Amino acid sequence: MNYRHHYHAGNYADVFKHALLLSLIGGMQRKEKGFLYLDTHAGRGGYDLTTSGVLPDGRERAPEWPAGIGRLWEAAQLPAELAPLLQASKAFNLRKTGDDAEIRVYPGSPWVARCALRPQDRAVLCELREDDAEALDFEIGGQPGVKVCAMDGYTGLKAFLPPPEKRALVLIDPPFESATEFADIVDAMAAAQRRFPSGTYAIWYPITERARCDNFIAALASAQAAPPMLCAELQIASEASQVRMKGCGLLVLNPPWRIDEEFRAILPPLAALLKQDAGGAARVSWPVPER
Ligand SMILES: C[S@@+](CC[C@H](N)C(=O)[O-])C[C@H]1O[C@@H](n2cnc3c(N)ncnc32)[C@H](O)[C@@H]1O
What we know:
- This protein is α/β, with parallel strands linked by helices.
- Helix content is 37%, strand content 19%.
- α1 (12-28) packs parallel to α4 (109-116) and α1 (12-28) runs antiparallel to α9 (259-274).
């Protein structure tokens, strides 16, 4: 496992994912009853942006966060839909550095989610790398209602679902290092659907090859008894661009009611802010419509 999120923390994909995650949590919280937030690939919980451009061998490269969360910090007038993520990012800087005037750190999904959870909600956070799980435990582990597990996230789906609350929001955010990751998710979703069909599952994916994404979406949509499935995508560069990952998406199985309307409000200003060329765009669709 070579992937280290540290080098990508706060990039456009994190901003997209975390802005939609906060919207999904808000959607889950329209009901008073508590729910489980299960983060299958949780990461370290927080990242030092001042070193994210330095590779392990000491070489330097351009950090990714200035074209992501950096643009939200710098926006003269940030659209209201993006304010919750900026607030979470500022709160994390204040907590870690005692200052929120300048951006130096960026929170991971567990911390972003934890900020929004209520006392009746719970978080289970799985991370396979021992060192990252330890860092995550240090960052957030001692908090009430939070459990950090150094384990495989796909095993976590079997271990923690269905939850006693009978309500869950699951974030699946793998590194896509493995050639079988898309297929692994399709298999994991088939098993998770059997164990806990009413759960809300949010799956992040990179857009490097359009056909591979379309096949992935089609495989999930054509599964037996596929639940309603919402797809949000952000493209930051045109097909002709040299950028390898031209965009990313979030598939949401069993999305909270009318969350598509919120996604449609969040994504256009996000695309306008994060685009790297004229090909920047966003779209929301229903590969499996609500019945
Ligand atoms: C994209 S990063 C997660 C970022 C995090 N969700 C966030 O938004 O801040 C993927 C993480 O998954 C971890 N990982 C890789 N394979 C895993 C597995 N099978 N189970 C759990 N974690 C895994 C990696 O070590 C890495 O920290």
